[in-house]
Design a protein that fits this description.
InterPro entries: Zincin_1 (IPR010428), Zincin_1_sf (IPR038555). This is Peptidase. It comes from Bifidobacterium biavatii DSM 23969. The protein is 39% helix and 11% strand. β2 and β3 form a beta hairpin. A three-stranded mixed β-sheet has the order 1-3-2. It has one domain: Zincin-like, CATH 3.30.2010. It is elongated, with a radius of gyration of 22 Å. With 142 residues, the chain is α+β, with helices and mostly antiparallel strands.
Amino acid sequence: MIEAPWNARVYRNRHGRGTRTPMFGTRLPRYRTKSGMFDDMVAAQIRRLNGAWPQMVKSVQFAVEDVPPSQPAPWEPEPNFNSQCFPASHGVPARIVLYRMPIQAVARGRVDMQLIIRDEVVSRLAELFGRRPEEIDPDWGL
């Protein structure tokens, strides 16, 4: 029985010279997207802080969003568009949300972005637990 051309499986590229393969390997830097690298940087900071303050980090949920909401929270006198924290209430754990695109817009490079992420996570943890950021991370703000 002859199949229709659109139902036939294609095992060769469109020129018929070879099999279809990825353009680049999965271990190459190009394979990771900007959002994936940002998520990895945030996870690395959370792991680092979890080593020093496990009881503090374990009780907080972390999230990454692309952009902040259009309306800032009414209780914030001066909205920060890089991150936001929500205290625990009625069985919902405390949350820290980092906004990817504003941080990427401010950062001048990969190292600068890592420092901004570190400062945002530490300052929001300090805000949630009523501590100074220097108590949580002595390198904060440097």
